[in-house]
Amino acid sequence: MLRFLLIYCLCLFILQCEAQTSFSLQKDKSLSLNLSEHDSLPHNCTFTDKQKLNIVLISGSASYVGSLIILYNSWYKDYPQSNFHFFNDNNEWFMLDKYAHAMTSYNMGNLGYHTLLWTGLEEKKAIWYGGFLGSYYLTIIETLDGFSKGWGASPGDIAANTSGSLLFCLQQTFWHKQNIRFKYSFMPSPYAQYRPNLLGTNGFYSIFKDYNGYNCWASFNLKTLFENDEKFPDWLCLSIGYGADGMIGASSNPAIYNGQIMPVFERKRQFYLSADIDYMRLPVRSKYLKLLFKAISFIKLPFPALEYNKTDKFKFHPFYF
Length: 321
Prior knowledge:
Shape: globular
Structural class: alpha+beta
Strand content: 15-25%
Radius of gyration: 21 Å
Strand order of the largest sheet: 1-2-3-6-7-8
Largest sheet: 6 strands, antiparallel
Oligomer: single chain
Distance between the termini: 18 Å
């Protein structure tokens, strides 16, 4: 999880730098595209399309190579290597890691699409080239995993990466906007203290490593869901969430860890129903607010939520993130 959120944040930084540059320059032309007003970057830039494409290619390539070097040195370098192999890890973490892959791939595709639109690339190419940015990048990481003796390339991860990219591309192709958004939320869990190396040594690292606190959401735009019913504002969403609890091991909980007897925790899946906001459809005029909303579009907003799990059955949370 840590790797994928770091990758997303890196790509987000590149996109925001490019978008900020375009905001600060004079408008020279506009592109006529059948796009939602809040789903496209302003094209007010004095750079030519070729210059903008060069900026993206150079900065993107440098970031791509640099991030792979950082990942290799921080994650793979000190682990034993082997011949390329596959590894089935679908029984781990109640598959929450697969949702993390899909969410990351989806949101990287969103960034890739808007970045290529900024270069003047036609919409169809921007959708399929940019929309699959996450799959392209994460496939390289799966390849590195495949040569690591302790892991392996995961078919489940590859399928999740592809599904995240397709969710973005198909919506943009047929609806010209995102009516379903993959989002992320996190609430600290009490389990990291038992296996800090696995679940995070402190609150910051737990955000990236503790799947007990991680929730993945699919937010459905209500106005679109009910065929443009005017009773619903453009930005209101119904959100379906998935999480898990009681996990201090990937596929099972150890009875003893580092010589210490571990408490017994019940491992269980959690399902949620909540409300959410599509930041990209909020009626704001400020270009800086729009930029901010693009940056946080992958974060689920706290709302009341109804939870279901096999132990407690239905459980209401007045305020849940």
